[in-house]
Every structure is written in structure tokens, then in C-alpha cells.
Amino acid sequence: MDDFSTFCLPNPNLEEVTAEYATLQQELELALANPDVSDETLRAVVSKWDGVRRRIESWSNLVEIRFNQETNDPDYKAAQDYRDEISPKLTELNVGIQKMLVETPLRPRLEAIFGAHAFKLWEVQNSTFDPCIHDDLVQESKLVSRYNELTAAAKIEFQGEEFNLSSISKFEEHADRDVRYGASRAMWQWYAANRAELDQIYGELVSIRHGIAQKLGYDSFIELAYRRMSRTDYDADDVARYREEVREHVVPLCREIHRTQEETLNLEDLMFWDEGLFDSAGNPAPLGTYEAQIEMAQRMFNDMNVELGQFFQLMCEKNLLDLKIRPWKAGGGFCSSLPNEELPFIFANFNGSKGDVEVFTHEMGHAFQCYSSFDGAALLEHVWPTYEACEIHSMSLEFLTWPHMEMFFGEAAERFRRIHLLTSILFLPYGVAVDHYQHAIFAEPDATPERRHAIWQEMERLYLPDTNYGDLPHVSTGGRWQQKRHIYMSPFYYIDYTLAQCCALQFWVRSEREFATAMQDYVDLCKRGGTMPFSGLVDSAGLKNPFKPGSLKDVVQQAREYLKL
């Protein structure tokens, strides 16, 4: 691939793919039935299957990227619908192969060739699918797309201009309090106007997901969700204990931060629309044009690490960055990949705020890890680790770029670093609130929309006790959760950001003491990709596991010292 902007892949023909898998299955059966089969033959058969997966996943990811780039394009929408329709069948075909691999008496030999972790992942993934849920999965995907389309199409009038949900968020950091309030009110009025549809979409998603879990033999969607997330080394009890650690050690620090904000901003009461501002002069914004920022990023990555610099140059040359806001472009940011090309892709929505730098460095962390892991990856499972481990790479790179922030913020660089650390700490209670909310929702799958909004308010009392929405529409009655795309689109993902943040903060501390060592440890971790589960990767990098007592306490103490709190 020379240029992503013109890159395309044909839609796979389901009948042809099914026939291809039938041939693969026959070849694998013959190999596994022969006790004297050579390692070379086993490697060749499994690698052939992996090649088919890479080809199809490249197409699937490309379809998703194009739809997010232009949600109003009828061709991209049709391709997305086709992808949603055939994805369950493709999953069924892969599960068929995976079951053969995990159940064969030759599994110890296969594990010696490919590593044991992939087989544990396949065992978990196999338990999340059965042909009886095919239609439910199609409907689930369509509802997720409906939410994505609805939010991408948002048009918000403010100060005589029209904004979408991504572009209006820049006013959260505006120095003028009336502007912050007005923009926040305009945005949440959109959510209030669309509350009924947002409630309906989520209600149907909860019902479908709960129904899928029951069809697969689970009591609730919670256990199934953990398996969908490929969590092999911790469970809901571990996460519940971790959330309690956040309440004990982080929530009190966040309350101190809010009091400091009130003093800094000279406010009698810190309101919700004030929480994004940490300086009375306004939060620092990146300098220069978009083109200048890309040039600065190239210089930064060149200076940080040779491999990182070469990688970013490749991303630019092949147009693997889509960072500017456009009408009908989906919100948020993400990193995807094209396994057949062994290349990642970054999607974001720059709006002129400091968040542009944070989101960009975050997604670059994902992309660099992905690219680093393709080299020598015998299986797709070796490229991306499980999600919470993925987020270590992204969040850590945010901190590792700190020494170069003068490029982007000039004299305001230290203000940016302080605010970045503050927001990283403040994020933890919100992140666990989102996670706890989903556990509570699927414990009551028949709850009414009103009850779901009330449950969110319970979470706020536990983790966000200082939040004051005043007279803002929607959020003042428990609707803030509907802004979080992950709740609709990637259930039970969000806790992963908080687990990774604990690890990223440890990388920050290490980089403050010895940057070269921290950077090399980071690059080495990226190259390990998905060869180990979360705990193994954390241990391999010399980090403290967030599930172990004391990890948060140490991070909080180190943050207090830096922030002089």
C-alpha cells in the first residue's frame, strides 16, 4: 500500500470464504490426526489460516475506518451493513478452527510452537459464540452503528456557528466562564433532545446482550463481557477491589484538586462546566498550524527514539493519519490496523485544544506498539495484546513526550504538563464510575430508562461527589453516561484505561528519573505485543500490577509530590 487515501479492498464473498475455511479445516484435521506430523507442517497449516484471518480483518477494519471517516456516505454505510451481516458467520468459521486447536491432543506441541497465551485466548473466545446468537450479533452491530450515526450527525448551534460533538468540546477549556457554560448547555441540550432515542438504543442493546449471555449459558452479560474482552488473568471480583482502591486513595486526592481549582479560578463553587479549566488564563492550546504541528511531531519522535521517528515518517508518507474534524466524521479517536499490510491507522478529531496533543500521542502509542509487534508475529494474537495492556502503550507515550512539549506549547509547556497530570488523576474515578455503572446495569437488565439514569447518579455519589451540574439539561438528571461511546459500543472496555493509567504513571515516574531507561523499557514492552496476558506484560516491564495492594497508593503519593499537594 502506497497511499491509504486511495487504498481499497474488495468485499469478501461469503460462499467463497466458507469454502476456503472448509479446505483449511480438512488440512488441519489431516495434520492433527497424524501423531508423527512435523512441527513444520503444523506451523504451515496454522499460518495458512492466520493469513486468511489477516486478509479478512484488513477488509473489516478498512470498512469500519471508511464509515467513521464519512458516516453519511451511502457506499460506506452499505459496506458497514454488509460487514455487520457477515461478521457472525466469520466468527463462527474462526471458532471452528480454534476449537480444533485447543481440543487436539497435539496442543502441547502447538503451544511450544506458537506460545500458550494464544490458546488461552481461543478458549475464552470460543465460549463467547454459538451459531444460535448469529441474528442477535447482527442486531447488536446495527444498534451500535445507529448510535454512531446519531452522534456523528449532531448539529449544535452556538455563538452563531454550527458545531458537532467533537468541535464544541473545545469550549470546555475556554477562559470565559459564560462561554464554558453556554457551550456546555448547548451540547447537553442536544443530548436532552435526543434522550428518548439514546435511551431506546441502549435499552435494546442491554436486552440483546443479556439475551445473548443467557443463550450461551451465562447468568448475566457480565461474565460474557469479560470473556469477550479476552480477560484470562483476572475477574469481576479483582476489578471490584480495584475500584474500591480508587475510592480510598484517589477520590480524596481529586477532591483536593477541585478545591485547588476553585482557588486558582477564584470561584466560590466549582461547577461542572468549570472542571475542564485549570488556569484563569485558559488552558494552553497547541501553537501553529496543523502542518506545523505534524512537522514538530516528526522532530520530537526523531529525538525520542530512532525507531519511533522512522515509524512516524512512514505513517505520514502513506497517509495513515486522519486527524482533522469534518462534518459527518464520527467523533472520538482510535487506532486500527491493516494486518495484511502490517500497518496501523490513526483516527482523531483535532479541535484546537490541548487535547489534540494528548489524543495524538495516545493513538501514536497504540500505533507504534502495533507496528513494532507485527515484526515476527506468528499469529494475529501476537500483534495486539488485550485491551488494558494496549492502553499502557498509549497512555505511557503521552507522558514520555513530556520533555518535548515546549515544541507544541512554548512557554506554557509546564502548565500543560501539570494539567496533563491533574487530568490523568481526575480521570481515574470517572473511569471506574463508568465501569461500575455497567456492572450495575447488567445486574438489572430489565431496568427502566429512569432507573438507568438513577443508577448513574448513584455512581456519581460514590466516585464523583463534587460534581455540580447546576441547571444544565440532561446531565443534572443522570444523563452524563450517554456521552460515553464505550458504554454503547464497547461494553466493559472503559476500566482498561484506568488500569493502564496506573502503569503509565509508573512509566512517568521512571522517565523523570532516567528517561533513556524508561524509553527503552517502553519500546521493549511494545515489541512484546500480545505474547502475554496483562499481568505478564506488566511484570515484564517491571511495573506494579494495579490489582495488587499499594500500587495506587504509591502513584498517588508521587503525584502529590509533583503537584505539591
TrEMBL record:
Residues 173-549 form the Peptidase M3A/M3B catalytic domain. Its cofactor is Zn(2+). GO terms for molecular function: metal ion binding; metalloendopeptidase activity. InterPro entries: Pept_M3A_M3B_dom, Pept_M3B_oligopep-rel. GO terms for biological process: proteolysis. The keyword Transferase does not apply. It comes from the Bacteria. It holds the Pfam family Peptidase_M3. Keywords: Hydrolase, Metal-binding, Metalloprotease, Protease, Zinc. Binds 1 zinc ion. CDD domains: M3B_PepF. Belongs to the peptidase M3 family. NCBIfam families: M3_not_pepF. This is Peptidase M3. It comes from Blastopirellula marina.
